[in-house]
Amino acid sequence: MDLCGKVAVITGGKRIGRIVARELADRGMNLVLSYRGSKDEAEQTAADVQAAGRRAVIVNADVSKPADCEAIIDQAMAAFGHIDVLVNMASIYRSKPLQEVSADYWTTDLDVNLRSAFLCAHAAIPHMRASGGGRIVNFADWLVRSGRPRYTGFTPYYVAKAGVVALTESLALEVARDNILVNAIAPGPIVPPPDMSREEVDDVARATPVGHWGGEAEIAKAVVLLCQTDFITGETIRVDGGRHLE
User: Fold this and answer.
1) What pLDDT is stored for residue 168 in this prediction?
2) Containing domain of residue 147, as a range?
3) Nearest to 180 by CA among 121, 241, 234, 134
4) For the chain, what is the domain count?
């Protein structure tokens, strides 16, 4: 798919999402950017898009709420009249010992990390179908794609991201005949969390076969690939520097 002049909706556009938005704008796309609490960052990303000569709309939304997921798509249609790409990046990454995981904690993890991707896709697909096709890019995790949880304390997160892989495959089958391709990205060590020590950062780099963290641009490249392809669908692609090989 030629991206120039097309419209992409990105949910959860912080940090890595900002680089993804810039890359898509550089390729001629107009952007709809949803945010929950980081309005300043969303506005900065919108400014980046506009500096590239493209249009950007920001939408305040809590993707754990079905009505807000619908509102993101509705505002995209109101602003541009069509949707060509949906990038479901909204996610929460947190840990808690299993015995401390409450029903509310579990529900929030699954709502943000899994259900929101379904709800946004479900709202966007009719518009993509009406305009002749589209692309949906979800976000999983390298551990889930590799079939091993590895770390304790992440059961709700792991289950949610495993659900993203299953959702990606099932949606891909449902909408392939409509020229809507659905894939997922499973990031590995891309950007160190702000609370990670220098020693921990170096340990992760040493444990990664390529010997370093990936950086946001590697995710942006993968998103572009999955937006441009006309034949890849139902795939979850690891972007992890070979970490799964260790």
Assistant:
1) 98
2) 7-189+216-240
3) 134
4) 1
Handedness of CA 94, 144, 146, 165 (dihedral sign): negative
pTM, two decimals, is 0.96
Q: What is the CATH number of the domain that holds 30?
A: 3.40.50.720
Question: How long, in residues, is the chain?
Answer: 246
Which residue, among 137, 58, 49, has the nearest Cα to 91 in the 3D structure? Answer: 137
Q: How many CB atoms are closer than 10 A to CB 239?
A: 19
Give 138's pLDDT tier (boundaries 50, 70, 90): very high
pLDDT digits (tens, 9 = 90+) for 194-238: 889 999 999 999 999 999 999 999 999 999 999 999 999 999 999
Whether residue 157 lies in the annotated active site: yes
Average pLDDT over residues 132-157: 96
Instruction: Please compute the mean of the pLDDT values over residues 58-85 and round it to a whole number.
Output: 97
Residue 195 within any structural domain of the chain: no
Residue 204 lies in a domain: no
233 part of a folded domain: yes
Residues 6+ away with beta carbon under 8 Å from 40: none
Q: How many CB atoms lie within 10 A of CB 130?
A: 12
C-alpha–C-alpha distance, residues 165 and 120, integer Å: 16
Of the listed 93, 151, 157, 158, which one is catalytic? 157
Confirm whether 203 is domain-assigned.
Answer: no
